[in-house]
Design a protein that fits this description.
The chain is 47% helix and 15% strand. It has 340 residues and is an alpha/beta fold. The strands form two sheets. Strands 2-1-3-4 form a four-stranded parallel beta sheet, with helices on both faces. The chain has a four-stranded parallel beta sheet with strand order 6-5-7-8, with helices on both faces. β3, α5 (131-145) and β4 (153-156) form a beta-alpha-beta unit. The longest helix is centred in the N-terminal third of the chain and has 27 residues, at 39-65.
Length: 340
């Protein structure tokens, strides 16, 4: 019997049109781990205020990055799945499941269970833990497996923000750009979260966001803290890239709504850097392992325009890991080591 491997990423619309995007956003934003408010309030917010307006705007954004291969996130995730399967070889059976949209987690699990796997290794492709990403992916897997007669032995790959292979794979993409472009500043832009999500991740209720230095050291209180994971990712990459402390910073992108989200905000930081005289900017997005709407359109197009409009002269987005050989090997190694 083989070991099943389920790679999980967020998901993507099937087409860059309003109806397909609306279907995708409805599933995504109806998840109580994503918008964690009263179910009636969430329904009203999603159906009356978000979907009627955001679907069209998001469809326009998706069209800007859609390629002949379709959705970049799906294409890169499928390429990674194929390459990891080839790297692991015959003892493993590797499938991709998206938390929202297709190929779904359900279809991937059904395929693996039909092939009588002896064990299942779950790989949420999120470097830093968040309830709205890793948490909801694992919940979906467990909900489906709860209905199965034969449940294989389960192992979940933990957040890999400190994994040497992950860090070196990103650093390897950045080093030649640093040498070639000699940027004035390096920005590490991470997906944002509402501040309440961070507070909820703290079992003590009195650590996260209570002090300015609460993320400097990992402990029992911030073990699941996304913000702490982000800070450690940034520090580790800056060290690998030999960046001086005053030459880099971190920020948070992709916020939604009016409640407080993690700061500083990327869309505020980037024009500020340009106005402060930073002419050449290099941007990493280390909360993403595959290029997607948030990297290619939000940063690669809109953020670039903002930087140049405010006086910057050179803006470069470091590609995500996608299916680069070093990253493929790192994922395969994490899978082999898991459960040991």
């Amino acid at each position: 019997m083989k070991t099943g491997v389920l790679l999980i990423n967020l998901g993507t619309p099937e087409q860059p049109d309003k109806e397909a995007v609306r279907t995708y956003l409805k599933e995504f934003l109806s998840d109580p781990r994503v918008i964690d408010i009263h179910p009636i309030a969430r329904w009203l917010l999603v159906h009356l205020f978000i979907l009627p307006f955001r679907s069209r705007r998001s469809a326009e954004a998706y069209r800007k990055i859609w390629s002949t291969q379709g959705s970049p996130l799906l294409h890169h995730s499928e390429a990674l799945t194929y390459a990891v399967g080839k790297e692991l070889g015959d003892p493993y059976l590797v499938k991709l499941g998206m938390r929202y949209g297709n190929p779904s987690i359900t279809s991937a699990l059904n395929f693996l269970l039909e092939h009588s796997i002896s064990s299942l290794k779950i790989v949420p492709l999120y470097p830093q833990y968040a309830s709205s990403s890793t948490g909801t992916a694992l919940e979906k897997v467990l909900q489906h497996l709860a209905k199965a007669t034969n449940i294989p032995t389960l192992t979940s790959i933990p957040p890999f923000y400190q994994d040497p292979g992950f860090l070196e794979s990103y650093a390897a993409l950045g080093r030649p750009l640093l040498q070639q472009l000699k940027p004035d500043h390096v920005l590490f832009s991470f997906h944002g979260l509402p501040e309440r999500h961070i507070v909820q991740s703290d079992p003590s209720g009195n650590h996260c966001l209570e002090k300015s230095d609460c993320c400097e050291l990992m402990n029992d209180q911030n073990h699941f803290c996304y913000r702490a994971h982000v800070h450690h990712t940034t520090q580790a990459l800056a060290q690998k890239l030999a960046l001086a402390p005053d030459t880099y910073s971190l920020s948070f992108q992709s916020r939604l709504g009016r409640t407080p989200w993690l700061q500083p905000y990327t869309d505020k930081v980037i024009p500020q850097l340009a106005r402060k005289g930073k002419k050449r900017l290099l941007v990493f997005c280390p909360s993403f392992v595959a290029d997607c709407l948030e990297t290619l359109e939000e940063i690669g197009i809109r953020a670039k325009e903002s930087f140049l409009d405010n006086g910057g002269t050179s803006f470069t987005l470091v590609p995500c890991l996608n299916s680069t050989p070093g990253w493929v090997s790192s994922v395969a190694q994490m899978i082999r080591k898991s459960g040991d």
